[in-house]
Amino acid sequence: MNQEEQVQVLGLWGSPFSKRVEMVLKLKGIPYEYIEEDVYVQKSPMLLKSNPIHKKVPVLVHQGKSIAESLVIIEYIEDTWKTSSPMLPHDPYERSMARFWAKYVDDKVMLTLWKACWGRESEREKMVEEAHEGLNYLEEELGDKQFFGGETIGFVDIAADFIAYWFGIAQEASGVKIMTAEKFPKLQRWSNHFVGNSVIKEVLPPKEKLMALFKAQFGNNASN
After folding, report:
1. Sign of the CA dihedral 42, 164, 103, 19?
2. Sign of the CA dihedral 89, 77, 164, 55?
3. pLDDT digits (tens, 9 = 90+) for 37-91
4. What is the reported pLDDT for 173?
5. Within its chain, how far is the Cα of 13 from the centroid?
6. Separation CA 115–CA 170 (nearest Å)
């Protein structure tokens, strides 16, 4: 790949948002250079230049141009490399619905799940109820499909990577049990299929390292 075609990803090892971008690039077979960002201590000049508004990862740099926000990046990748592993359906209605559910996961479900594990004790019961509600909607939408996109991993599956992998570790670290096989058998089956995919496995951060991170950074919040 010549310099003009070079693809770079500025990311963070444990971020489900950063990993979304890597997952899609791997699934499409697009070579890229990964650049780890120390966002908690000192953000690099490259990150500050590439994403001056939010100053966050992930950022995709392609042909010298920077794109921020994980779902926006995935759509850029989809529009730029259409050769294999489509993330979005061709049908306009189905594409719109995929975007709807991905946004629902981002704006509603992920935050609720996180607060249910690590939020204030006084808010925990309400957050658990809201988490169940959000997961119920996703359970219904998934139905009997292997993935949200059908037979192959698609846009919504990638958007829900936190639910498939990170949330199980967060539950174990916090002692909160919400997404169980008994309550959400379809989501649990989907999670196993997603995490078990050979390409996805290459990208996922180590469970033990994430567990230690969650306990170190958020463990004390559970009792506040």
Report:
1. positive
2. negative
3. 999 899 999 999 999 999 999 999 999 999 999 999 999 999 999 878 999 999 9
4. 94
5. 12
6. 11
Token pair 């567990």 is at which residue? Answer: 211
Of 116, 158, 163, the C-alpha closest to 138 is 163
The one-letter amino acid code at 148 reads F
Mean pLDDT confidence for 154-180 = 96
| Residue corresponding to tokens 């958020």 | 218
Contact 191, 163 (CB under 8 A): yes
Structure tokens at 157: 């599956």
> First-to-last CA distance in the chain?
51
179-199 confidence digits (pLDDT tens): 999 999 999 999 999 999 999
Residue 35: both structure tokens together: 């650049």
Q: Where are the beta strands (DSSP E) in the chain?
A: 7-11, 33-36, 59-62, 65-68
Calpha distance 55→38 (Å, rounded):
12
Q: Is the peptide bond before 58 cis (omega within 30 degrees of 0)?
A: yes
Angle CA 107–109–115, to nearest 5: 100
Q: Which long-range contacts (CB under 8 A, 24 or more apart) does 13-18 make?
A: 13/205, 13/209, 14/205, 14/209, 14/210, 14/213, 15/57, 15/58, 16/161, 16/162, 16/165, 16/166, 17/57, 17/58, 17/70, 18/57, 18/58, 18/70
Looking at residue 56, what DSSP letter applies?
A: -
Element (H, E) at 169: helix 167-174
